Amino acid sequence: MERWVCQPCGWVYDPAEGDPDSDIEPGVAFEDLPEDYVCPICGATKDLFEKE
Q1: pLDDT score of 17
Q2: What percent of the chain has pLDDT above 90?
Q3: Which class for 51: exposed (0-12), middle (13-18), buried (19 or more C-beta within 10 A)?
Q4: How far apart are alpha carbons 33 and 12 in whole angstroms?
Q5: Structure confidence at residue 43 (pLDDT)
Q6: How far apart are CA 32 and CA 42, in angstroms?
Q7: 3-class secondary structure, 51
Q8: Strands 12-13, 4-6: parallel, antiparallel or unpaired by DSSP?
Q9: In angstroms, how far is the first alpha carbon of the chain from the final one?
């Protein structure tokens, strides 16, 4: 699975790790995140992430 980088702050969403702060379990692909998912660091929306 591909990692995605938040463009405003540089935080990386790694599907292998998930996002425990947002209750996202490991193994969830970026495309399968909820539409209202935001970066846990800066609050950027999904459209501001790019594939690493």
Answers
A1: 97
A2: 98
A3: exposed
A4: 14
A5: 98
A6: 20
A7: strand
A8: antiparallel
A9: 11
- What token pair was written down for 37? 């998912």
Strand partners, 4: 13, 51
Kindly report whether the global pTM for this prediction surpasses the value 0.85.
yes
Contact between 6 and 13 under an 8 Å Cβ cutoff? The reply is yes
Percent with pLDDT over 70 in the chain: 100
Quote the pLDDT of residue 1.
Answer: 83
Q: How is residue 38 written in tokens?
A: 């935001």
Q: Are strands 49-51 and 12-13 parallel, antiparallel or unpaired?
A: unpaired
- Per-residue b or e along 9-32, where b marks 16 or more CB atoms closer than 10 Å to that residue's CB: eebebebeebbeeeebeeebebee
For tokens 């950027």, name the residue: 44
